[in-house]
């Protein structure tokens, strides 16, 4: 068993001139393509027992964050449409004002003592995950003149193989900053890029409580062809 | 349906940093009490100017001392680089891992590096110097000899192995497409 290579154009390059931080951090030598071994096809079992879930970033005992409460839900599937069961999904984000609860974030926007901006959930038997948070704010960065990141939530996912490990970002529909963002636009394939934009979803929306967004995530699928030396 | 695109972890990924995770042998952790050779893996990540990368996320994935991924040992760790670009993991030395057919891979640790400026992770491997199986490891063998050393950790103090990682430039680390 091995995992299929990503479809052409769906993954960003290491060297992206419009995104300045890549200049000194991208390898100049080509990556060495290796046949996957047990190391790449196995993965840590990330269980709730080891890594406790935290599905509500917006509210806890005695505290409630400022901002527009939202619910985000979606499925984690592989490229063959198979749900990933028990997959660990970590999320982190800026607060409603566009400020991270992080010592190196110097943006002049208010911190919210009631918003840490970090959560962890696990997919159920159909691959569904769900968490409640507040809608993050856009924030400036120093990449180019008057640069602002579109509103986004960072995602970290573990699948069933080391080769499926994924860190990505979820964006919000209709954000006018999306066409201007070098990080979003470094993905060559427009359809793949647009799959990073969540959809407003009335089924996820809870009456009198919070707007809902749907964001599905697809991890690499398994190769049908067996490994060369498999008996 | 094609796989979701990767995006950078950015500079503020530390909201999901839990420093205890860099010690795979931590008290009360998943591996407390599992026998094996205790080792420390250290290294420094630098960029094309030789400047430290002080905001990188390093993860390891490794087999247990018997070379198994499906036994009790939880071979996962996460570490944030410090101001000097340094990372440090405490773990057990992995055993040889089954490869194709009846062959064995030399003991190794898989590394993923995420950071601001990396739109997807960089993957590499840490092997151990002087390990007899290194000579016949198929992945090491596929690396041009002049660059092979970028994958081989050297012993420092007792039980400490160092592998520095250069993202770009002279002595650039060999990164793997997996
Ligand atoms: Fe961000």
TrEMBL record, chain A:
InterPro entries in the cross-refs: Intradiol_dOase_C (IPR000627), Intradiol_dOase_core (IPR015889), Intradiol_RC_Dioxygenase (IPR050770), PCDO_beta_N (IPR024756), Protocat_dOase_b (IPR012785)
Domain Intradiol ring-cleavage dioxygenases residues, every copy: 72-100
Biased composition (Pro residues): 1-15
A Pfam family assignment: Dioxygenase_C
Keyword Oxidoreductase: yes
Enzyme class: oxidoreductase
Presence of keyword Oxidoreductase: yes
Keywords in alphabetical order: Dioxygenase, Oxidoreductase
GO molecular function, one term: protocatechuate 3,4-dioxygenase activity
The EC number(s) this enzyme carries: 1.13.11.3
Record family assignment: Belongs to the intradiol ring-cleavage dioxygenase family.
The protein, known as: Protocatechuate 3,4-dioxygenase subunit beta
Organism the protein comes from: Paeniroseomonas aquatica
TrEMBL record, chain B:
Entry keyword Transferase: no
Pfam families attached to this UniProt entry: Dioxygenase_C
Record protein name field: Protocatechuate 3,4-dioxygenase subunit alpha
Molecular function in Gene Ontology: protocatechuate 3,4-dioxygenase activity
Cited Gene3D superfamilies: Aromatic compound dioxygenase
Entry superkingdom: Bacteria
Enzyme class of the recorded protein, top EC level: oxidoreductase
Family from the record: Belongs to the intradiol ring-cleavage dioxygenase family.
Keywords: Dioxygenase, Oxidoreductase
